[in-house]
Input
Amino acid sequence: MARKSHVQTTINGETVEFLCESRQSLLEVLRDELHLTGAKEGCNNGNCGACSVILDGRLVNSCLVLGVETEGKSVETIEGVAEPDKLHPIQDAFLENAALQCGICTPGFIMSTKALLDQNPNPTEHEIRYWLAGNLCRCTGYDKIVRAVQDAAESM
Output
């Protein structure tokens, strides 16, 4: 039987403790142990961005980070983006621009957009496309997503 490690971290502003195996990814911990299912497993090898979260202010693929590596760190997931009674401006922009279809990639795009706008509140279209290059969508063209990011930047 694999030995589990005790991890204490902050997720979406709240202190959280969990047990996980040393080989469990942050994505597995979020979904299976903490029941935060917003981050999606698309490829499980860091190529699609569906599992993107912000770890200590840095955008990461949660499938490539071990759960034990989050000890003492801060994790922000899609569940922490909106306020209890209203959506974040990024989420509003994605809805208003129809920048989503099936929804598998949407949480990753929103987290990537948030990380971008936290660092660069007024990105050019080229910067947006470069920043979102780690996120794949099989349903939409990327133009609606880029427009949503531009609109979110304006409204924020």
